[in-house]
Amino acid sequence: MTHTLETSWRRFRDTTRLLPLDGLRAVAILLVFTGHVEAPGPWKAVHGGVGVTLFFVISGFIITTLLLRESDERPVDFGAFYIRRAFRILPMYLLVLAVYCVLILVLGTQEDRRAEFLNALPGYLMGFPEIVQLTNTAEHQAPFSGAWSIGIEDKFYLVWPVVGFLLLRRRWTALIPLLLVSAGILTVVGFGTPVARVLQPYVHIILGVLVAVGLHYRGSFGVLARLFGRWWLTWALLAVSLALVLYPDIALGTPLYVPYGLLWAVTIVSLFTAPPGAATTVLSSRPLLFIGTVSYSFYLTHAFVLNALEKLPPAIPSWAQYPLGLAGSLVLAWATYRLVESPMNRWGHRIAARRRARRTPAPSASDVRSPAPIAPATRRDSRPDR
User: Fold this and answer.
1) Which of 227, 238, 240 is nearest to 274 (CA)?
2) Which of 265, 219, 199 is nearest to 59 (CA)?
3) Looking at the domain assignment, is residue 189 inside a domain?
4) Would you say 27 and 179 are in contact if contact means Cβ atoms under 8 Å apart?
């Protein structure tokens, strides 16, 4: 490996927060928001729902990177992992679901969608919000149905750490073929039916997992860097990925849905193997970092703002829904992030840290008298997502 590749790999491994990922999160949530604006305007040409595709790839990448870095230093503490995930996801999810229950079941808003909400509510409460993908139609969308992707990711959080880091213990000679075969099966099973809408998203998550594994190890990082580590290729991949949002056949359930996720996976590879350049700078800019940081709260709450703006007085042009909706959604996302998401996330990390401290054996007397040499401190076990 050349010095440049070695430097790139070390930079990736030692980075505590992979800032461009927050920029990509911002891109993903802005696409989702754009796809949900009902007012007429140029944004109607954008198939913004594919922003969720990028979220899936990012999730597979981040979670696997976290687990790889932790398992490099010590056995994965699965209890601590699940505590952190629960405090990261559930508080906002349950809060927003409770708000929907009050608005629809108590205050009687969205009366025309009350039946759809009641039908979907058991799935929401039991942790299967993705069930709405089997029942939603273009004309009948259950309120809170955007939470379907959270149900997909939750199943990944539950299964993958156990399979990859407990049962098969990072045996990649077995895991890589298993992941590839699983991706192939999930791509074709139920294709053209609603079943595919709850299976194909896992292919994008698997792609993110494979990217994380490839970038984690020096040898595979070098191979990927030689193939995709060019600054101009990063820009080209970003440009094509974003241009394709105007193409209808990349949405969930369409023939190019899985290949589109592969395009984003390769884009992430190029982003982290190429020398730092303008693409990294843009994706790490303050506005995109802010939007990416609050993207989870934004995802769950922006529908409240858009629903309210549908009742604008006739004197206000309908196109104003986009800028007003974006501004309002950002404010609401920031408020819920500061008041709910961030405090609960920190609380979960504290509980997980205390658990890990209790499980770490105290040094013996001989260890205290004759300490082993201490290696230079690194930050590889830190969280790349926050």
Assistant:
1) 227
2) 265
3) yes
4) no
Amino acid at 305: V
CA distances from 357 to 77, 79, 317 (A): 11, 13, 58
24-50 exposure pattern, b = at least 16 Cβ within 10 A, e = fewer: bbbbbbbbbbbbbbebebebeebbbbb
d(CA 207, CA 156): 13
> What sign does the dihedral 267-273-277-280 (CA atoms) show?
positive
Q: Is residue 178 part of a domain?
A: yes
Q: State which amino acid sits at residue 59.
A: S
| Most distant CA pair in the chain, distance | 80
Alpha-carbon distance 37 to 44, whole Å? 8
Question: pTM of the predicted model, to two decimals?
Answer: 0.91
Does residue 16 lie within any of the structural domains? yes
Query: Residue 230's domain spans which residues?
Result: 3-74+147-358
Number of domains in the chain: 1
Q: Count of residues for the chain?
A: 386
Return d(Cα 167, Cα 39) in angstroms, integer.
50
Q: Where are the beta strands (DSSP E) in the chain?
A: none
Q: What span, in angstroms and rounded, lies between the C-alpha atoms of 258 and 53?
A: 9
Domain assignment present for 177: yes
Q: How do residues 191-244 score in pLDDT, each as one tens digit?
A: 888 899 999 999 999 999 999 999 999 999 999 999 999 999 999 999 999 999
